[in-house]
Amino acid sequence: MSSVSMVEVSKRYGDIVALDSVSLKIEEGEYVCVIGPSGSGKSTFLKVIAGIVKPDEGEIYIGGRIVNNVPIEEREIGIVMQDILLFPHMTLWGNLTYGPIVQGVGYAEAEAIAREVAGFMKLTLRMKAYPGELSRGDQQKVAIARAIAAGARVLLLDEPFASIDSRTAKVLRFELKQLAKDLRLTVIHVTHNQEEALSVADRIVVMRKGKIEQFDKPSRLFSNPRTPFVVHFLGGEANFFEGRVVKLEEDGVIVDIGLGELVKGEGFRRVGERVVYAVRPEHVDVLPSEDGGIEGVVEEVNLMGFYYRAIISVDNRKIVVRLKDRLKFLKEGKVVKLRFKRGFVFKYPVEGLEEAIKYE
Ligand SMILES: Nc1ncnc2c1ncn2[C@@H]1O[C@H](COP(=O)(O)OP(=O)(O)O)[C@@H](O)[C@H]1O
Ligand SMILES: [Mg+2]
Fold first, then answer.
1. What does the DSSP 8-state code read for residue 301?
2. Could you report the per-residue pLDDT of 176-199, keeping only the tens digit for each?
3. Atom number of ligand 1 nearest to Cα 11
4. Domain housing 356
5. Is position 296 within any domain?
């Protein structure tokens, strides 16, 4: 059993609230990534599960057992951080057998465990090598293997691939995911790399200011974002408008965002309610000026590799648009029409829109 739960866990450092009444349940065998701006509490989240930091309030459960007073070494967790912490004076073999030996199994059994884990991880390295002789990617692989050999059922990873070149990191992320599934490990993986999170996570925790903004499947963070911040943080460059609901329809609401044309969005709100309307750049259609839609002027168009990014000014607002192909009429200075294919409607935040989407 290696589910991980938190019930109303808080941790403060003086005036800073690093974790603010966090509750969630991560299932056994689940691969969860934690993302959020720097300072949002991601590392503290891992540290309270690990037992490195004691929460001020709340309960932490691993495998259904409350572990608030259980020391790190008895939590059956493995911790791997950005800075690789192998024993530099021990061979790889020594590193892998260390955990089991310390836990008191005999040398033969420790070797069997190490061999099994090395096999699982396809570690074809020279086991007599010292960590310093390996690439950073291989060192990190050994660090993960060492945690598993030591009996970890829950892996806590804090930016484990941040100092590894991106090509190697990409291979490692899928190997690690496969390994976790093969061994039914529960993984909680903090990363600043959204692409990494989206490609391996079963579910993602989006953190902000010590709170969980949303804990959901990657696809649902896009299809059903819970807050303007989630729209802003994932993918970036979303367009936000303040508006008012003018009409309810079966599949959404019609909103007046003060740009002439009314727009349609997803969300359940009341008529007359003040709302935030969010549109992702890829959900804006750009049409020739003869067409209907919100009128704007093309400010700039840039090729971004796989797509075009254009800025269209509407009144004194700048709307960011993302297009797969360059349209003939999309030229700087030209008048175009915009249509929003998809928008998300949120209750207007008490702290104001700007504050609600700020990274910090
Ligand atoms: N040991 C500490 N002492 C004081 N403040 C801390 C300590 N650890 C973290 N913090 C503060 O708590 C907040 C959350 O930090 P952290 O969990 O490291 O965020 P993240 O990993 O998302 O960048 C930040 O404001 C950070 O400065
Ligand atoms: Mg951190």
1. E
2. 999 999 889 999 999 999 999 999
3. 12
4. 238-278+345-360
5. yes
